[in-house]
Amino acid sequence: MNRPLLVLCDTDEVYVGRLYEFLRENLKLSFEIITFTAIEILMDFVRDKSPSLLVISENAYRDLREKKMGERIKNILVLDEDESGLNEEQELYGQVNIGHTSKYQAATGVIDNIVNFCVERAEDFDGVSTKFVSNNAKIIGLFTPISKCGQTSLALSMGKELSQRGRTIFLSFESFSSLPGILGLSEEGNISDLVYYSDSDENKFCLYLEKIKNTLDQLDIIAPAKTAMQIREISYESLKHLIEMLVNKAGYEYIIMDITDYPEGLFDILRLCNKLFSIVKNDKSDIYRFELYEDVLRENGYEDVIAETIKVDGSEVQDFKNLLKREGIVNE
Question: What's residue 122's pLDDT?
């Protein structure tokens, strides 16, 4: 199957060359990217081909519009070269979708605007996925009934380490979490939104994922839902489907689930994990709570979860690299 086509056009060869290289390395969507520096050649191309998206400089777009060729391309993102831009009315061009962004912003901003453009007009970008393929994904869960034990810190440390070795995403299930404020996560969406998108429209899932996710160094992070009620509304079936999408569509090799509050079907969710870590403490009350948790698992037929749980002493939280090696998640 041919990949969707993203066309770059600018008469400035240096600019379009640098933008092409940056998009090729950093735009995670599965576009085939080609460039043009001459309007005449672009016009010849679009007579036979239909790009999914044209990203074009303002001056080049003026020439394209004067030659009445703009209407041949349905989705156009214009790189404005001055503050006023073109500001044309869309109705002049029928069904053409026209967006604007600054040519002189950081290249990461251009990527953000491309993703936003695609999400806003997602019906025109069916089948856009990511460039990645995962053949042997590992699902790593962290859950303990003990509070204030450093679980989120351990989960993040594991995620950062694994992201150096493969495509990794961090899913947080903690209500009223301070994580967005501490890490400076955007407010574009959270785990509840991502579950909804994975259930509602598989063909556009990767577009929504790119819009919602945050990236810290190389670790992708999905912000937690705000309330425990929102987390409880996430079912085992929905989360299982989300994980399948993250592996099969988005190509993640490692999925870290930091489970603090309880989605619906928690024990079945724990069964999904290839590795399940539980932090334990020697405090009498914490020992009692953990034993109570294990009793509930036994009473409900989840002895296998107990058997597969990797207990982590509080002193091991800082020694996460050896923990990952010891459990065979990473090699020496």
Answer: 74
Q: What is the pLDDT of residue 4?
A: 85
The larger pLDDT score, comparing residue 66 to residue 191, is at 191
Contact 179, 152 (CB under 8 A): yes
Please answer whether residues 78 and 100 qualify as being in contact, where contact means their C-beta atoms are separated by less than 8 angstroms: yes
pLDDT tens, position by position, 128-174: 777 666 667 999 999 999 988 899 999 999 999 999 999 999 999 99
* pLDDT in the model for residue 165: 93
Q: Over range 221-243, report the average pLDDT.
A: 94
User: Smallest Cα–Cα separation from 172: which of 189, 164, 162?
Assistant: 189
Block residue for tokens 């399948």: 244
Q: How many CA atoms lie within 13 A of 189 on its CB side?
A: 16
For 81-117, the pLDDT digits (tens) are 875 545 554 434 456 789 999 999 999 999 989 988 9
Task: Determine contact, residues 68/93, Cβ cutoff 8 Å.
Answer: no
Which of 139, 108, 118, 106 lies closest to 30, judged by CA? 118
Residue 32: closest CA among 42, 40, 23, 41: 23
